[in-house]
UniProtKB/TrEMBL annotation:
Belongs to the autoinducer-2 exporter (AI-2E) (TC 2.A.86) family. It holds the Pfam family AI-2E_transport. Keywords: Cell membrane, Membrane, Transmembrane, Transmembrane helix, Transport. This is AI-2E family transporter. It is found in: Cell membrane. Its main location: membrane. It comes from Microcella humidisoli.
Amino acid sequence: MFWRPKADPLPPAGADAVAPAMRTAAAWSWRMLVVAGAIGVLIFLIIQLRLIVIPLLIGVLLAALLVPFATWLKHRLRFPHWLAVTTAMLTLVSVVTALIWLVVAQVRAGWPSLQDRSVDAFDEFLVWLSTTFGLSTDEITGWIDGIVSELDFSTGGPLVTGALSVSATAVELLTGTVLVLFSLLFFLIDGPNIWRFVVRIFPRTARPAVDGAARAGWLTLTNFSKVQIFVAFVDGLGIGLIAWALGLPLALPIGVAVFLASFVPFVGALVTGALAVLIALVYNGPFIALLMLGGVLLVQQIEGNVLQPLIMGPAVRVHPLAVVLAVATGGLLAGIPGTLFAVPIAAFVNVFVRYIASGRWRIIPHPMTLSDIQPPPVAPTQERP
């Protein structure tokens, strides 16, 4: 027999030519791209339909607050269903109307004195500019006239365009308010049936997990709404009392504005606090403005270091860094509405995912309290010597 050299094996071809690590990375990559694309399309649709989505989400947040109240009226006070729903709706409308009436009445009562003081403060500012920088009255007047002329009061000018934009925003606000009340009313009347319809959209095998996880997220959302109202009340009361103690005008409207703006994390407190400091600067001078600034910072520190960790933290169950990133992302994508819904959406998604991943929906398919959401603590294992 003749000896033949052994032929070299053929190199792998096709998928076999790719290293296992690269195949795993590619499999993860295209799946992540599909998920990211789906999320991107969902965000795009939400932004395009924001005039409907935002009122609907506000209705959900209000329902998270009013559903326990209506349930309490039915179970404790034996109210009929229709009477409990009517009482809850009337309570909400009455509280909001009372707050608006207080603000309008206080602003109307204090507006003349604030207007006169604003004119005096502006004259003092002109005198300060003249004495500090050596500017003449004619030069300052010329600058002011130039700024006014740049505003352009013509038909296509920015002021007219801004006025039209405000008018359109007012119409959108009125329409959104009607949608909020309409959706809230049906959430209170027929919420369970609406949710059962949503659950039937999912595959039959996934319905128990989705239902249990969503109920867990709903409990977190209701707890967040109650705690957020308490935190906003503390902020408004603290800053309002400081403004009243310092002798600021419109102390009550300032407190109400802080209360309402505190529902927008970080941004709301910053804007209303700056407004309070500005009123103190115009009406009472720099020293009182510094005291007001110190009071605002004190209240914010109490909120950030006491209320948020002790009260808001257990309610939201989201790490503070995740809260900051969620608020920043929401503001970047959707402005003020994004910052308003960022924390409750992050809290809901966090509890929803963790409840499904832990498999707790098999043990407690219908969680009723916050203790049902948390898994039992695991006893630490002792290491062998």
